[in-house]
Amino acid sequence: MAQIDFQSRVGVWWTSDAWAIQDVQVRAKELERLGYGSLFYGEAFGKESLTQAGALLGATERLVVGTGIANIHARDAKAAEAGGRTLSALHPGRFVLGLGVSHAPLVEGNAGTYTKPLATMRDYLQRMDELSAKVEPGAPRPTRLLAALGPKMIELSGTAADGAHPYLITPEQTATTRELLGPDKWVVSEQAVALTTDREVGLRRAHQHLHMYSQLPNYRNSWLRQGFDESDLVVGGSDELAEHLVAIGDAESIAAHVRRHLDAGANHVVIQVLGDGPADDPLPALRELAPALDL
């Protein structure tokens, strides 16, 4: 099993594109002090993934930093491998290169071409492997996780990568991912949370969060495979979908939901705090959640 030196089984997922990187570094240091094991983040509209990883790794001592995910349409395969090797050489066991095929509307909206995502990912991984061993000689290659939702991409994450980083899934889907991958690959599941005892506030945040995803075919198909139906796939998702995909409640109830992913076979769970907008600071909620999560 590839090396990832998580200091605890729960980390954080936070895309901080609306924040200055210096402020993100300060918050990463506090996450480390609180006992969170990682900080993962997305790549769609803002900061460049590998540059951000270097900044966060350099600002912390133990925190694992993961791209969740780096868009394979945003950089050449060998550039991704070379950048990942350099980060792994500088910070052994602390960098995770999460990779994903993104989504047709996002890729084509940036003048890219989106076809045959499984074949595209397989080819990308093969080209990564072709990078000369002379690049960062002696350093471990970056640990690779794939944004894997469907069974074929999950299978590829086991045969050509080190595991899966599934997003917007139920604990039952974590169990399915573990079953497909077997015991020797990483499963790092994302879990969105709304820390509030006001159900209406929690649902509002959940629907706002799901608004974009509910219009993307990859996620719609994933939710249908997970047992939801077309009535759940309205823009923003049905209340039932929202309450299954977003843990809403107090710290103890959210911690219990996170444990369901761990019990289902996740090695590590990254929690994404939902607020009222992308500029909201997740740290107050993460401070409150930390004791309940037994970090």
UniProtKB/TrEMBL annotation:
Quote the EC number. 1.-.-.-
* All copies of domain Luciferase-like, residue ranges: 12-267
Under InterPro entries, the record lists: F420-G6PD/mer, Lucif-like_OxRdatse_MSMEG_4141, Luciferase-like_dom, Luciferase-like_sf
Protein name stated in the entry: LLM class F420-dependent oxidoreductase
Top EC class for this record? oxidoreductase
GO MF term (any one): oxidoreductase activity
Identify the species of origin: Saccharopolyspora ipomoeae
- Signal peptide location: none
